[in-house]
Structure formats: C-alpha cells, structure tokens
Specification:
The protein is mostly helical. The chain has 8 helices and 3 strands; from the N terminus they run αβββααααααα.
Length: 260
C-alpha cells in the first residue's frame, strides 16, 4: 500500500511534532557513502507505531521538492542548496543533513491533513511483516474479547441461592407440565409424576377414563383365572395320554414297516 495512515487515535492524541498532526514523522539518523554519493538514512514512523528506514540521496529529496512545488509553490520551506565542490566534507554533510531534516519537518507540517501522492510515494510504507504483525494484534484483541464473553465450562458453576433455585424449579416444572399435557398419553402413566406435589390436571379425553382405572373390575376375575390355570395344568400334565388321533394337535405321519 501507500503507507498512508487512516487517522487512528495515536495521531490525534500524540502528534508527530509539536506543531503537526501529520500521521508520519521522519528523522535523519545517519548517512553512508554508496557508489561515491552520500545516502541519507531516514527513519519513518506512522501513527500505528510502525517504523521503517529509507535510503535517499540529496537528488531524490530534491525531486520530491520539485514535485511538491506546483501544489504549494512559495509555501514550501527552503531547500538546502547544492554544492559542487567539497560536498563529501563531513562537516558539510552534517550541516546538509540538519537542513534536510528541517526541510522534511516543514513539508510534513504543510501536509498535515492531506498528504500528496508524491509525499506518500517518497515515504513508502512499513515492510509486509509489520502489517501482518499489526493484523495479528487486531485478531488477537478480537479473540480475547470473544473469549471473555463466552461461558467457561471448565469452571464449576456458581451456587444458586434459594430464591433463584425456587424460581428455576417452578419454571422447569411448568415447562414439563405443558410438554406432558400436549402429548397423547395413556392416563395410567400420569398417576404418579408428582410435579411440585400438586395435583396434575388432565385433559378431557384422559380424565374420562382415569377414575375407572382406580376402581376394581365389577366381574369376578378370580374364578375365571382359576379355571384357566386348572385347564392349563391339565394340558401340561394330563392324567392319561390321548390315544385318539383326532384329539392330537399334530397327526402322526404314517409309518411303513418293512416286511418280515
């Protein structure tokens, strides 16, 4: 990306300089001699706290100045002058570095709220791993927030006071009663449920037969049962064998004996 900050809280609460709310700050931290030219090392920081280093020659900073001139014209800060001879002198390099630092601070102040494409291109952005680290921090924050709202089943449940326990028992009892009464159930299964020690109301179809189930049968079942048991005993252990084939349950197959 362009490295442009979207305006986070860090920018509004911690401006990058005393007079600027620009989301970037720059600091010339040193210089090196590369291929016969002085290259300045610039540390850039954005509002997210990400930092990265730039290596820019005097010519490249001058090109940024030329790109910004059509937009700001005379409002641009003064740019350090060019020197044809003795530009490798350490004292001159230190003086130019200080001048470039002052110039870049002026540019950032001038473009505090609306950075131009030229400036954003010059500053670049943090390396990819920095962006991934920031995204990982955001993801971890979201995850921690979600975990704090979830029920931790590993912890023992908090004890209930008597009032809440009574309310829950009443609530669950009512739910169970409504469920039972909404189902077609044989009345015999409803004799001893004992919900909250209260008499269980029955639907009209079951109530018609419930009282009849409590009363003994009007007929004398004992005599009938005794007669059935006697008949069963006689069939299992008869006093004499049945010789009449007509009285056998299964007829014996015909057996042909060989001639003697």
């Amino acid at each position: 990306g362009s490295g442009r900050c979207s305006g986070c809280s860090i920018c509004s609460t911690n401006p990058m300089s005393a007079d600027s709310s620009n989301p970037f700050s720059v600091k010339f931290v040193g210089n090196v001699l590369l291929e016969g030219h002085t290259t300045y090392i610039i540390k850039v920081t954005n509002c997210d706290g990400d930092t990265w280093n730039l290596q820019k020659r005097y010519r490249e900073i001058r090109e940024l100045h030329d790109d910004l001139r059509p937009r700001h014209q005379d409002a641009l800060p003064a740019f350090p002058g060019k020197r044809l001879f003795g530009n490798q002198d350490p004292a001159f390099i230190a003086s130019r570095q200080a001048g470039l630092q002052q110039y870049m601070e002026g540019v950032l102040l001038l473009e505090s709220y609306n950075q131009s494409p030229a400036l954003l291109h010059f500053l670049g952005g943090p390396p990819r791993q920095h962006g991934e680290r920031n995204q990982a921090k955001i993801n971890q924050t979201i995850l921690d927030n979600m975990q704090s709202r979830l029920l931790n089943l590993a912890l023992p449940p908090a004890p209930l006071d008597e009032t809440e326990l009574s309310q829950r028992l009443k609530k669950y009892g009512q739910a169970m009663r409504l469920h039972v009464l909404s189902q077609p159930v044989d009345p015999i299964h409803l004799r001893t449920p004992g919900f909250d020690s209260e008499p269980l109301p029955l639907c009209s179809t079951n109530a018609d037969h419930f009282e009849a189930l409590k009363n003994p049968c009007a007929n004398n079942d004992g005599k009938v049962l005794n007669q059935l048991l006697d008949n069963l005993q006689e069939a299992m252990k008869p006093d004499h064998l049945h010789a009449d084939p007509e009285q056998l349950i299964v007829a014996f197959p015909e057996v042909t004996l060989p001639p003697t």
